[in-house]
Each structure stands twice: as structure tokens, then as C-alpha cells.
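Possible regression after last week's pipeline update?

I re-ran a chain I had predicted before the update to compare outputs. Posting the input and the new output here so someone can diff against the archived version. Not blocking, just want to make sure nothing changed silently.
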Amino acid sequence: GRVRPFARAPLVHVDKSFSQVLESLDAAAFLTGTARHGRFVLQADVTQARSSDSAALPIGVDARVRLRQRSASLTAGYAWVADEHTTLDLMAGLRQWDIQAAVAVPGLLAAGSDTAFVDPIVALRWHQQLSPRWSSVAYVDAGGLGVGSDSTWQLLALANYHASGQLYVSAGYRHQYVDYRNAGKRLDVALSGPMLGLTWRWG
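New output (post-update):
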């Protein structure tokens, strides 16, 4: 992504492969919960990631970049298709962002900012039962529209294995993006990669 904590700071571009991201990643965690009552569905999602790295500037020196991103989404909607094998949920809601960004150029400057804003989003979630033990989930949302950020979107694809009882093992891929600009400040950041998780189902 590209990060400028405020108008007078340099615009720093960071583009790392998955293996390079693992080296610079300080911590990351994701938690998602879904509740249903009849055809009504409610979903909450929390993410957090912290990373630190260096990036080259056009002036020939390296800048140290630190980024901490938190997001919390809440959506509600209606199961448009709902049977024993398939659910298709149409939802709308809000995503709250809290992003701390800092750029330091040794001997020249150090700049940082803490930015918080809220985006409206619309979402689509599809769940397909493939066999007694296997299922898949695809989720996409999009929003921003200049209310908080210029744009934000998220994509998630998962394969789930029913391990035992209420326990499921999940593996897949997730991509999350936000483009926020305000008074010279710019946070144009994308986070993506494989994910592995556990799901506990009630009811």
C-alpha cells in the first residue's frame, strides 16, 4: 500500500510478498461470528494487524514504516436463499476503522497519525454444503462511498471441514482493502493472504 500520515510527510510505498510480510508482521488476528433466527442474519467481524518495515524513498534513503490496523464490522440482513444445503445472505451495515501509521526517516523527520472513521458497507455471503463433512463459504463486501473512506472492500473464501461435534476446521484466503484520503493524509492499504481457523457452531 501507500501511506502518508499527514500532508507534510513523505508518501511511502510498500509492496511485499507473502514471505516478506511474515518477516515484518508483528501480530494479526481475525474473529467472525454469525447468528441466525429464521431468515434474519446478523454478522460481526473484527480484524487487527500490526506490521513494521522499511521502504525506499525517491530521495535515495530508506523510511521506517509502522502500521497498525483495526477494523470492526457489523452487518444484518436477510437469507434470500435458505435450504438445508445452501444459504445466500444479503446484508448491509457499518465498518469502523482505527489506523495508526508512522513514517520515520533517520536524521530527517518522524511523523505519525491515528485515524478513525466509519464506512457504510453492503455484503453478500454464500454458504454451500458440499457433503456431510465439507462445506464452503464465499463472502464479499464493499462500501466507503466517501462517507469515511473513498472506498473499501473485502473478499473471503473458505473451505470448512466438520471435524467432530460442533467443531469445524477452516482454511482459505482473505483480502481487505481501504483507501482513505483527507487533507493530504493518505492511507491506501491492502492486506491479503491465506488463513487457517477454527469454528464452533451452536444450535
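Follow-up from reviewer: compared with the archived run. The longest helix spans residues 18-24. Marking as no regression found.
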